[in-house]
Amino acid sequence: MPYEVIDNKKMYYEIHGEGEAIVFLNGIMMSTASWVPFLNLLSRDYKVVLVDLLDQGRSDKADVFYTQDMHVDMLNKLLIKLSIDKFNLLGISYGGEVAMLYALKYQERLNSLILSNTTAYTNKIMKHIGDSWEFAASLYDTTNFMKVTLPYIYSQKFYEENFQWINERIKLFKTAFTKEWYDGFRRAVKSADDLNILERLNEIKVPTLIISSELDVITPISYQKEIKNRIENSRWVEIKDAGHASMYEKPNEFSLAVLGFLKTLGYDVRIL
C-alpha cells in the first residue's frame, strides 16, 4: 500500500489518473475510501491525490494532542516527497480548515483552493457540538456515537428518506470504529478548538471556490459567506436541499461545482 513516512509517522495516500493535480482533504470522519464513488469522473482529466491525515483512515495515529498546523506541515512534506509541486487543493469541513491554513502558509504551491462546508473559526455553538461529539467518542459505543453525530451531518429530508441506509452505515462502522479510531477522532476534534483565521483570509490570493449547502446546520451558509467576502478572488455556490455532507446527499451537484470551477480557471466571461 502507498505510504510515506513523514515525521516518523506513516501517511497513507492514493493517486489516480494523470494531469493537473487535485489534492483532497477529508472531513473529520472521512478517509480516502470516502472518495471512491467520485474517482472515475474526477480522474478522467485530473491527477486525483487522496490523503489520509494523521488520525484518519490508514494513516498512523498521533501520540499526543496537536493543532491543525501539524497537518499542514506534514501534508506539505508528503507532497514534496511525491514531487507534486503545483496543485489544486480541495478540503471538506475539517479538511477545508486545514486547506485554508495550508493556503496561508504555502500559497505559492497552489493553483486554486476549493472549500466545501467549512468554517474559518470555531465559534461557541461549534465548540459545544465538538464537545458533545468528543464525549460520545469517549464512550466507545458506535451505535450511540453515530446517533449523536449523524443527525448533524445529514439534512432532515435525507435522513428520513434514507433511514435504512443510515442504519446500515451504523452496523458497518461497528467493526471499523476501534478504540484507536475513537481516540484519534477525539484528538482531531480538539485540534480545531482554537481555530480562528477569519481576519487573515484576505491574505489568500489564489482563485477560490466556496461550496455551501442550504440545510447545513454545522457550518451554515453564513459561515461560507464570511469566507467569500474576505477572499478577493473567490466564487461561491450553494447546493440546494442538502445538509453538511453535500458530497453524499448531492454528489452530482457537488461534482459539477468542482469540475465547473476547475474548467473555468483563468477565464473571465463577460456579457457586457
TrEMBL record:
Molecular function per GO: catalytic activity
Domain AB hydrolase-1, first and last residues per copy: 21-251
Gene Ontology annotations for the cellular component aspect, listed alphabetically: membrane
Pfam families found in the cross-reference section: Abhydrolase_1 (PF00561)
Top-level division of the source organism's lineage: Bacteria
Name of this chain's protein: AB hydrolase-1 domain-containing protein
